[in-house]
Every structure is written in structure tokens, then in C-alpha cells.
Amino acid sequence: MRSEGGGRRRKVETRFEEKDKTVALRIIKLYLALPQSTEAQVIGKQLLCSGTSVGAHCREAYRNRSDADYISKIEVGLQELEETVYWLELLIESRMVSAEKLNSLIREAQELTAILVTCVKNTRHKSE
């Protein structure tokens, strides 16, 4: 996902950013539609934080000068994605939101995870 050639973005970066932004916007809409109960709002705020910070961490990664810094930022993005999936699962398992409404969002978060894992592996492989 690193930029190459004078700041030109590779296709995977652009694809990731578009997909991540779509997921983040869906999470914002989900948060706004959650029940007003204390439980739903607490989980919702956690979800809002983790689900919208992934792209910010990855954009920071693009600007890092070393592979180690790049990997570190991408791994923070991965942690945020894992946390996002956890909060989505809790919303389903607590029956605050139906699985039908969230399963596609969980799948998209898992797809983003796969993209980032590949980026980390490729960068580590390149560094060896």
C-alpha cells in the first residue's frame, strides 16, 4: 500500500481507501440509528472510534519513510479493524441489531483486514 514514484498511489491503496471510507460511512450511519439505550450508545461509541480510525492510520502509513514505520501503522489499522468486528459481533449477539443488517459490514471489515495483512506480508518479504 505504499506510495511509489513521486507520490503516485498504487491501485491497491486507492481501492483500500475507497472501501475503507465506505465502511466508515456505514458505521457512522449505524451509530446514528442505534437505540438510545446506554448499552447501545457505549458500544456504538467504541465502534465509531475503531471503525473510523482505520483509514487515518493507513494514510499515516503511506507517509512513513521506513518499512518498519509503515508496518507499525498498518498493524494499528489491523487492530482497529479487529476491534470493529468485535463491536459489531456484540451488537448482534446482544440482539441490539440484527445479523442481517451487520453481516455484510463484518464481511467488508474482514476483506479490509485481508488487504492489510497482505500489505504487511509483502512489505516484510520485500525487506528481507
From TrEMBL:
InterPro entries: 23S_rRNA-intervening_sequence, 23S_rRNA_IVS_sf. Gene3D superfamilies: 23S rRNA-intervening sequence. Pfam families: 23S_rRNA_IVP. PANTHER family: FOUR HELIX BUNDLE PROTEIN. This is Four helix bundle protein.
